[in-house]
Amino acid sequence: MQKTGIKSLLGAVFGGMILLGCAGTTPNLGSIGKSGNYESSVKVGNYKKALKELKSNQKDDLLWLMDAGLISKYAKDHNATIAFFDKAEEKIKQYDKEVLAGTMLANVGAVITNDTFMDYRPRIYEGIMVNTYKGMDFLNNGDKANARIEFNRALERQRRAKEFFKKEISQEKKKIEKEEMAKIKKKKLDPKKVKNASKKKTKDAIEKRYSNLFAFKAYPDFVNPFSSYMAGLFFLSSGDYAKATDILKETYGMIKDNEEASSFVKSDLEYALKASSSINMKNKKHYTWIVFANGEGPSKEELRFDIPLFLVTNKIYYTGIALPTFKERPSAYSHLIVKNGKNSIETKQVASMDKIIKAEFQKRFPVVMTRAITRTVAQSLLQYQLRKRGGLIGGILGSVYQGFMNRADTRQWKTLPKNFQIARVPMDNPLVVINFPSSKKQLKFNLDVNKNHILFIRIPAKNSKEIVDEVSF
Questions:
Q1: What's the domain count of the chain?
Q2: Is the model's pLDDT at 4 over the cut of 90?
Q3: Residue in 228, 428, 403 with CA at minimum distance from that of residue 345
Q4: What pTM was estimated for this model as a whole?
Q5: Cα atoms found within 13 Å of the Cα of residue 42, Cβ hemisphere only
Q6: Angle (deg, nearest 10), helices 144-186 and 353-405
Q7: Sign of CA dihedral 81, 424, 152, 170
Q8: How do beta strands 419-426 and 343-346 pair?
Q9: pLDDT in tens, 170-228
Q10: Strand-strand pairing, 453-459 and 442-446
Q11: Sequence-separated (6 or more) residues with CB below 8 Å from residue 118
């Protein structure tokens, strides 16, 4: 046994374990909350308490900033909302620049450790939602100039998402292979064995486990019908009927065969068309729009394969693979019932964040899977060499190390809703009443019949406190 070889291998193991210890302090919203459980506060709708708890463990981290921005919005701390989302967007823009310039950092150390050691990389839907929420917040504050900027940014992100994703994934594939092969050669592992890990059989077995997760009808590439709809509603409220018409037409095309709210979007489109061709809108009919942010988005969890998929030998004590997956969480309510005078209308889904989040995950999954397979094989080969050169103790150390490092990256923006629903009622009466199915609970609003209104309602879980914002125009 060569002493330098075993020292090098043991050094890699102990170095990784030290990194693992450091990883416990990495900003990760999954483990945040040592000074307070902000997620429990969110679930009952106590956003002021949630924000206080979140701020007690403040991080300069994209995920933390996005959660803090959204919680601030619902806590009605509008200055904090914009400040947090501005910082989040700065980080997203920096990443965008790196991708477009072809300078995206490689996954340093990922093959010997795991993906949680890398900085969190923003997802396309997250950037779109950051701009959408900023637009909504500016609209709530009556700042239509900045609201226009944000909704335009959200639309622009959607327009360039497909091409941006191609560039991002292309760079990631190249840099993963280059960096991982360099690591494998440095640790004197066999690149041929690692490359063989990408066999079709292995991938087919993993993809079979994910077939139910991907069994849904997605929207067109990277679009978020809610963001488009809110942009259309904003331009409608601003009197820019021509632009509202174009955006609502696109939104209708996204969901006409996919979501029940397409009939509402079609009605709004007809309203925009009529308004754009009318000289005098002073005597127009007025409406109240309901926008319902319902429930909680999917939770990201770990799926483990603790079986010797790649190397069957008594020289290895443990091998396995860990991949992220999603578990859907419940709606707060199936719908809301909106009443005004003789009119009674149920809200309908315009966009599912479950679909949007899982659709992007599905597109990224081949790269995630390849990286996980390569990492597992590299770590298994490292364990094999430790056992071969260091005997029983070396093998045990290698298996312990691999067991600790077999972790999926489950970081995500946790406070997004499950879905968005909409409805529209004519203002025949000042009193707008919102009823909850299977409940005596009601919300009542006395509104000006000579104005249009938008009611934003957020309910994270059944029987939790609702958050309401109202805009008139």
A1: 1
A2: no
A3: 428
A4: 0.84
A5: 24
A6: 30
A7: positive
A8: unpaired
A9: 887 776 666 556 655 555 555 565 555 455 667 777 888 898 899 889 998 899 999 99
A10: unpaired
A11: 107, 108, 110, 409
Contact 54, 38 (CB under 8 A): yes
Does position 1 have pLDDT exceeding 50, yes or no?
no
pLDDT in tens, 291-341: 999 999 999 999 887 654 444 445 555 567 889 999 999 999 999 999 999
Enclosing domain of residue 188: 3-472
Which CATH number do you get for residue 124?
1.25.40.10
The token pair at 353 is: 């964040």
pLDDT value at residue 355: 97
